Amino acid sequence: MKALGNIGKGRVRRALIAGVAGAALLLAGCGGGGGDDAEPSRSDTTCDGRIDGTAHITVWFHSEQRSEIGTLRGQVAEFNKAQKQVRVELVSLPGRKPYRELVDSAAASGDLPDLLDFDGPNLYSYAWSGKLRPIESCVPASVRSDLLPSIRRQGTYAGRLWGVGTFDSGLGLFVRKSVLKKAGIRIPAGIKDAWTADEFTGILRTLRAQGHRTPLDLYLESTKPGDEWPTYGFAPAVWSAGGDLIDPVHYRTADGYLNGPRAVKALTTLQNWMKEGLVDAGKDDKAFVEGRSVISWLGHWMYGDYTKAFPGDVAIVPLPDFGTGTATGMGSWQWGVPASGADGDAVWRFLAFLLTPAQVDRMSVANGAIPSTNRAVALSKQYGPNGAEHLYIDQLRGGVARPRPQTPAYPAVTEAFSEAFRQIMFERTPVQTALDRAVQAIDKDLAAHDGYPESGP
User: Fold this and answer.
1) Are 132 and 126 in contact (CB under 8 A)?
2) Is the pTM of this model over 0.85?
3) Cβ distance 107 to 28 under 8 Å?
4) In this structure, are residues 8 and 113 in contact, taking their beta carbons and an 8 Å threshold?
5) What's the Cα-to-Cα distance from 233 to each of 29, 58, 124, 360, 361, rounded to whole Å?
6) CA angle at 344 for the pair 338 and 345, rounded to the nearest 5°
């Protein structure tokens, strides 16, 4: 164990000196490999059930939201005050892209902390490349069973548990109830009652005829190069149609999946909405709150802003059914133990505190995200059985939510899909052409890495 003081700052400095050029060792990925409900093996040695002396651990956390980092600071202070055996030092770093680059650089130079917070899509390549330690020896069965199935799934790779999160995510359509009621449009009651894609197209046309010039917001403002929104937001349309971004079993090719007829049909539908002028142009992120659009295809994080803009007039309904049932995304920031030699039991002591129902609920209230445990859901006003956002829980528990491709190749997959989506929606490139190009880019990356064998690089 390393002493407190400048340990966190020193690691940050060394990581910056190492440079982002070393980031290739860590690629972005998401989801879970192996069964999420399988009882994990206890073959790892991350935790042995004891802590020798006083353990000092350094924790890195992204500081994208003030509410999140403020809450975590309070949790660290409370944890340190409540006991003396484990002392936690929290280092907050710039959010999203700068944070990812810093983490990648630190991994390349061997300067990762004892506990790392990272965006869900990174887990598979972190585990595959040997930068994380499995944690099934740390997490008791009682805690695993309390986690939402989506959390277990996204934290699992090659049949082993590598990460846990204190919150999850979800997608849906935010709708103005009064507007739909006036237009005589039914409002779906749940995941088994989703609008079909054809029905939804008709609804958009009806709303335009009612005077809503661009009735649908797809958050196109967030489709710039490097943005994760296109994949997170619109892979569900492909899944719902019966397609996929890559072979979902072996992850050896995208050919016939991403450019297959079902994926082409789903994205052609979205492109047609754009061609018809039914979609807001995405110049900013205010289409719904300013009333330019009355339906918004977005995630849980907009609930607060939308209900503030239209109190009592916002409902959340499932994404459209493109042929095989509605689908949605999942996955958010989670915690993992880097291969840094830290005392796993000390790290788990702090993680176990963060996963108590009261602390999960505390973070959920602060950032508006979906609580990661069943007991915390039961405490939640918003996500509980009668809560306004309970649809997200139904989706995460009911098999509607899917992780993004569960492979270390995910960086290539998301980059290729996002570029194809941009071409389809803004350049009006023929859908088949754009997806064929994406498949070529993904398969080229797979070939360059020998298909990312489970044994690692």
Assistant:
1) yes
2) yes
3) no
4) yes
5) 16, 34, 20, 25, 25
6) 155
